[in-house]
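Let us walk through a complete example step by step. Step one is to write down the protein sequence. Step two is to encode the small molecule, NAP, as a SMILES string so that its atoms and bonds are unambiguous. Step three, shown after the inputs, is the structure prediction itself.
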Amino acid sequence: MASRRDFLSSGAIVAAGFALAPISACSREAAPAAAPAAASADTPFSGTLLKRKIPATGESIPVIGLGTSGNFEIGDDAAARAPLREVLKRFADAGASVIDTAPTYSSAEDVLGELVADAGLRPKVFLATKLSGVSGREQGQAQFEQSLRRLRTERIDLLQVHNLGDTRTQFALARELQQQGKVRLVGLTHYREQAQEELAQYLRSLKPDFVQINYSVVSRGAERTIFPLARELGIAVMINRAFEDGRLFAQVKGKALPAWAAEVGAGSWAQLFLKFALSDPAATVVIPATSKPKNQTDNLKAGVGAMLDAKQREALIAAVE
Ligand SMILES: NC(=O)c1ccc[n+]([C@@H]2O[C@H](COP(=O)([O-])OP(=O)(O)OC[C@H]3O[C@@H](n4cnc5c(N)ncnc54)[C@H](OP(=O)(O)O)[C@@H]3O)[C@@H](O)[C@H]2O)c1
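Step three: the predicted structure of the complex.
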């Protein structure tokens, strides 16, 4: 198994080569399978999802994950479960695994736990949840026990301290749970660029296994604050809000895809936005949220073929602004 040190040395090579080559040429991942010329949103997913390594363990995870804020907050609504079952089926059939949730996303943990258990998917998914909105060790411990029950699992793959709330106490608890084997990996999250300087300080002092941040074609602060540090310290990066909670689609409404999209096998704006998010060598996984099977298939297609090179990134920024 590759160590954190192995990753750091290969990461330096990757960082040096980044300005010159698309991420598909990156030395720490297998060469991606060729993408179809135009992976339009409507055809079924085919191909092999690209994987990247979690530096702390050397474990490889697929680059396309799934968020659950909003889309899984459906309470007892039976009719809304059918499309979500299909979203999960397509996700797992494609070989994707990372799903991010939180105890404070109303019913999302319950719904996710139920649907994953019904489909027998627990062994195939990498479950990430959070210690969220709690204060003090006791509250954090109680919330974690509740998450295990709601998610119908005995172990969480990644436990993250949400939005820098009560950070030191909750992170110490997460590390304790990791030592007890109840949690495999620990992390910190935020969703606003204004918090990234403070987040960076915590990365230096706490050295979590993962950091989750917002990053998109219009929110690029992480390039300065988080990505270089994550490479330096060997921290995996999970990206939220790659679609700015869906707002990016309004900005390109009615615009034709750029001609160069076909060069990276992208057949939709969603695929370009996700490939953008994954273009930095430090990005490990992106977690778009959807409640629609068709959009799930679309998003999965971003995880095949090349990501964007420096010129393509600039062109996408110009197309959106
Ligand atoms: N502090 C934190 O830690 C934090 C904060 C925010 C978010 N998160 C995590 O990050 C995840 C993602 O962030 P997010 O949910 O805010 O937003 P997002 O992934 O940027 O955007 C989700 C929106 O995009 C739409 N969408 C998805 N795929 C699409 C496609 N292929 N074509 C067109 N529209 C598409 C969805 O609508 P449809 O359902 O109609 O597809 C939904 O409205 C969250 O679910 C959560 O797990 C964490």
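Step four is interpretation. The pocket of NAP is lined by residues 67-71, 100, 162-163, 189-191, 212, 240-246, 249, 270, 287-292, 295, 298-299 (CB under 6 Å).
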